[in-house]
């Protein structure tokens, strides 16, 4: 008896083995690496696909939302072209921040996220956009469809977190936030990252 088609005999790599999503770029799959409860920066190991400890958070600031990436995306030339002040893409999957009303206190989960905007961030000269999305079946946020539907205070928390999460005392920051953008621009970034992924990995 063979395995059913929906069954993975081995664990798929969360970057390469999961799908972007059937209704992308409007709704995408997100693999969550970190939660607002984490004082340690976790990151998927690119070789094994398992979650590894990157570093303790350098400041008292903690991510205001769920934080992870969109599978089968890649920040390279096309994503870089949408970020005028960056020199190149960062060579990683596109990061995503997922807003939800009910707390989710564990990482390594997969969820469906409704894209509403993004943050154009440059880290050490590299394009490092952060897509902003809503947990798709969260009824509390069901009317949020674009970036203007999000309270400014929450957007400011996201901005502050990414401006400071790599900050080392006494050293200048290599991170700049160029702008916070809306849904249509976020769609363009996701599409560009999917094309970059196809070119890089086939």
- What is the tally of helical segments? 3
Which stretches are poorly predicted, pLDDT < 50 over at least 5 residues? Answer: none
Span between termini: 32 Å
Q: What oligomeric assembly is this protein in?
A: single chain
Q: Examine the coordinates and then state which fold CATH places here, giving the name of the CATH topology.
A: Inorganic Pyrophosphatase
Identify the CATH class. Alpha Beta
Give the % helix: 10-25%
CATH architecture: Alpha-Beta Complex
As a whole number of angstroms, the C-alpha radius of gyration is 16 Å
Could you give the order of strands across the largest sheet? Answer: 1-4-6-9-7
**CATH superfamily assignment?**
Inorganic pyrophosphatase
Largest sheet: 5 strands, mixed, barrel
As for the number of domains, it is: 1
Which H/E pattern describes the elements? EEEEHEEEEEHEH
Q: What is the strand content?
A: 25-35%
Strand pairing plus helix content: what structural class? alpha+beta
Mean pLDDT figure? 94
Molecular shape: globular
Please explain how this structure is put together.
The chain has 202 residues and is of the alpha+beta class. The protein has a single domain, classed as Inorganic Pyrophosphatase. Helix content is 18%, strand content 30%. The chain has helices spanning 77-81, 152-164, 183-201, and strands at 27-34, 40-44, 51-56, 66-69, 88-89, 95-99, 109-123, 126-127, 130-135, 175-182. It has a 5-stranded mixed barrel with strand order 1-4-6-9-7. It has a two-stranded antiparallel ribbon with strand order 2-3. The chain is globular, with a radius of gyration of 16 Å.
């Amino acid at each position: 008896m063979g395995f059913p088609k929906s069954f993975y005999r081995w664990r798929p790599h969360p970057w390469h083995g999961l799908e972007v999503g059937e209704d992308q770029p409007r709704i995408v799959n997100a693999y969550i690496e970190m939660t607002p409860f984490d004082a340690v920066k976790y990151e998927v190991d690119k070789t094994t696909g398992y979650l590894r400890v990157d570093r303790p958070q350098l400041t008292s600031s903690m991510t205001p939302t769920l934080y992870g990436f969109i599978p089968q995306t890649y920040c390279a030339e096309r994503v870089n072209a949408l970020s005028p002040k960056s020199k190149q893409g960062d060579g990683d999957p596109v990061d995503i921040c997922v807003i939800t009303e009910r707390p989710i206190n564990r990482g390594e989960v997969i969820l469906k996220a409704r894209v509403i905007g993004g943050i154009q961030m440059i880290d050490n000269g590299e394009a490092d956009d952060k897509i902003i999305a809503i947990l798709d079946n969260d009824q509390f946020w069901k009317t949020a469809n674009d970036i203007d539907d999000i309270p400014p205070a929450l957007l400011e928390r996201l901005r502050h977190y990414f401006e400071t999460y790599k900050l080392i005392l006494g050293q200048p920051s290599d991170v700049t936030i160029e702008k916070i953008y809306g849904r249509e621009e976020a769609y363009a970034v996701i599409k560009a990252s999917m094309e970059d992924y196809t070119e890089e990995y086939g």
